[in-house]
Amino acid sequence: MTRLRPADAEKRQARNAGPDFLEALARGIAVIGAFNAERRQMSLSDVARATDLPRATVRRSLHTLEQLGYLESDGRLFRLTPKVMSLAAAYLGSGNAAILQQACDRLCATLDEACSAAVLEGDNAMMIAHASPPRYLASAPGAGFRVPAFCSALGRVLLAATGREPAGIRALTPKTVTDRRELKAILARVTKDGYALADQEVELGFRSLAVPVRRFDDRVVAALNIGIRVERATPKQMRDLFLPPLLQAAEELKDQVI
Description:
By secondary structure, this protein is an alpha+beta fold. The chain has two domains: about 5-85, Winged helix-like DNA-binding domain superfamily/Winged helix DNA-binding domain (Arc Repressor Mutant, subunit A), CATH 1.10.10.10; about 95-255, Beta-Lactamase (2-Layer Sandwich), CATH 3.30.450. Helices cover about 45% and strands about 20% of the residues. The strands form two sheets. A six-stranded antiparallel β-sheet has the order 6-5-4-9-8-7, sandwiched between helices. A three-stranded antiparallel β-sheet has the order 1-3-2. Strand 4 (about 115-120) and strand 5 form a beta hairpin. The longest helix is centred in the C-terminal third of the chain and has 19 residues, at about 235-255. The radius of gyration is 21 Å and the shape is globular. The relative contact order is 0.09.
C-alpha cells in the first residue's frame, strides 16, 4: 500500500474518514473533478497542480481512467470523454432529480418561463433539473450549472433552510447585495415569507423567484424557481403570477421526493 503524504494523512484525519476510506478512489474522483470549462484538456503536470497530488499518483489515476474510458489522450494532453456523463446520468435519472425534472417541465409548459430545481453544493446552488421555453434554448443552463448561493433566489432558499452563513460573497452586478447584515436579514425574511426573490443580483437583466421543496417530514431537499428577463415581469408581477403555481408545485412534490 502506498504511504500517504503527511499532508494527505492530516486531511484524512481532519475529515474523520475512518479506516474504510478508499484514498485511491478519492484521488481518482479528484482527477475527474479537476477538468472544467477552463481546463478542458491538461497534461499530467497540469492535473498534478490542479489536484495537489503527487505526479506518480496522478499518472496512475489518469492511466486507470483512460483504460476505463472516462479519459482520452493524444499522448500528452488528457480530456474527459462523454462516458463521464454516465456518472451524472445515474443520479439525474433516479430519485429526486427525475421527479424535479418532471415538475420543471410542467411549470415551463404552463407558465412559458424557464424553471429550475437546485440543491446546495458548497457555496453554490447547483441545478439538478431545468426546463426552458424555445426562445431560451440557445442560452439555457443545464443540470450541473451553478450559481452563487448568497445572491441567487435558489441559493437563498437553501441557505435559509440550512441556517448556513452566506459564503463566497462578492459583487456580481451593481445590484448584488454583499453586506453581511443585510444578507442575514434577507435570509430571515426568506424563512418568514417562504420564498426568495433575487432581482438582477446574479446577472443583469434577469430576476428569479424560488420556493423550498420539502419532503414528507418537512425537511427542505431542494429549491424550485422561475427565472425571467426583467422586461417580462416586475417583481410584484412575479409574486402575483408565479408564486402561487410554484408553491402548488412544491406542495405536490412533498409526497414524491425523498
